[in-house]
Amino acid sequence: LVDFADQADWYIINSCAVTKMSEKKTRQWISRALKKNQTSQVILIGCYSVLYSRQSPPSSPRLHVVNSPEKINRVLEILKISSNNSFSPKVIPETKRARVWLKIEDGCDHFCNYCIVPHLRGAVRSEEPEKIICQAIHLEKRGIQEIVLCGINLGRFGIENGHTNLISLLEKLIKSTNKVRYRLSSIEPFLIDNEFLDRYFSLVPRVCPHFHIPLQSGSDEILLKMGRGYTTQHFRKLIELIRKYDNKVAISTDIIVGFPGESEKLFNETTEFCREIGFSRAHVFVFSPRPFTPAFHWEKNEGVPFQTKKSREEQLLKIIFNSQLNYYRSFIGKTLSVLIETTDKNSAETGYSENYIPVRGEGILASDYGKILPIFIQREQDRILVGNVI
What is the mean pLDDT of residues 289-298? Predict the structure, then answer.
């Protein structure tokens, strides 16, 4: 294995197609890889590979487009490696990491009116619980302290067979492992109910008190047009319910600004709703029209000017940063369990707490890497909490 900046015989690019910008960046990576070494071969996988194969033939005979979600065997076939053989540790060493993302689900069947992902990834497909548990046990033996369960539509895990679901999987994982803690990458608001929350919070601290719940808009009119399947009142009641279990739980989100037809009034509804909820953090996206979606066509007649989109992005980020700061500062004088992800004294933060707050621990030793340590928070500095190991 070599760094992407170095010359290689093979380049594997795992791509994204959620926005036009991610699509553009993928094309740039392809171009760089092909130019880096005139004899190199490039394998394109991920969402953009599906879109790319539909739009045009490969730009070079050295570019191999793997447009199937079940891509690993095809990649191995191209590399002329049998899927029954294992790679030598000398070729691909196990890197030392503190946190690992474990994909347990793929595909989405919700079809929001702006999202290209269901068109590219296909229907929901879940990994077998037994395989996931085996992977988690193996990761813990390697010293991993936090596993992030992820998927395209994570909350739909197990829905296609009806024999299991996400919360049941979490319970089995905790019974099968000793100390590793689990975090959910994201879960849709319409997939969380009382039973889920009862069972989830009974598993804390082995599961993180952190939910990333996509809002997308704080305007009911825009939510309806997006095809999200809920209202701001539903979202509000859900957050109130979650905070009854733990009023310090982290609630992060995704929001799209500049959706077709979003007037200044409707945008202001989003800003006010975000102030009301008080998110711990948020990803704010400028709307990007994607092919195969209804919103792609709406953009032509109802599109918001790009500069207006960027202005709204900046306005909303200021509101989010303010609520983020208030949330972080509420932990001054308290102790957080922090996963130590670096012991570099020049790094801004040492790691992240159970509620996904960046923390710098003073007095951390090199031997502390990969551990979860209690850190008493003394102050906030540049949106990072600072404290000492207890």
Answer: 96
Contact 229, 192 (CB under 8 A): no
- Evaluate whether residue 19 is within a structural domain: yes
Range of the domain at 181: 96-208
384: tokens are 């990072």
Q: Which of 59, 2, 70 is nearest to 30 (CA)?
A: 59
Instruction: Please give the C-alpha separations between residue 337 and each of 67, 149, 181, 374, in angstroms, as whole numbers.
Output: 41, 19, 11, 5
Strands in 281-286's sheet, in edge-to-edge order, are: 210-212, 250-257, 281-286
101 shares a domain with 52: no
Residue 183 clears pLDDT 60, i.e. is over it: yes
Same domain, 100 and 204: yes
Q: H/E element holding 361?
A: strand 358-362
For residues 29 and 123, membership in a common domain is answered with no
Q: In terms of Cα–Cα distance, which of 142, 107, 147 is closest to 127?
A: 107
Give dist(CA 69, CA 384) in Å, integer.
Answer: 38
State pLDDT tens for residues 47-69: 888 888 887 777 788 998 887 65
Q: Which two tokens stand for residue 375?
A: 């850190």
Are β-strands 335-340 and 210-212 bridged in parallel, bridged antiparallel, or unpaired? unpaired
> Is 178 domain-assigned?
yes
Rounded to the nearest angstrom, the gap between the alpha carbon of residue 92 and the centroid of all alpha carbons in its chain is 25
Question: Quick one: DSSP state of residue 189?
Answer: G
Quote the CA–CA distance of 4 and 322 in Å, as a whole number. 37
- Specify burial of residue 309 (Cβ count, 10 A radius: 0-12, 13-18, 19+): buried
Confidence of residue 88 (pLDDT cuts 50, 70, 90): very low
- Tens digit of each residue's pLDDT (9 = 90 or more) over 240-269: 999 999 999 999 999 999 999 999 999 999
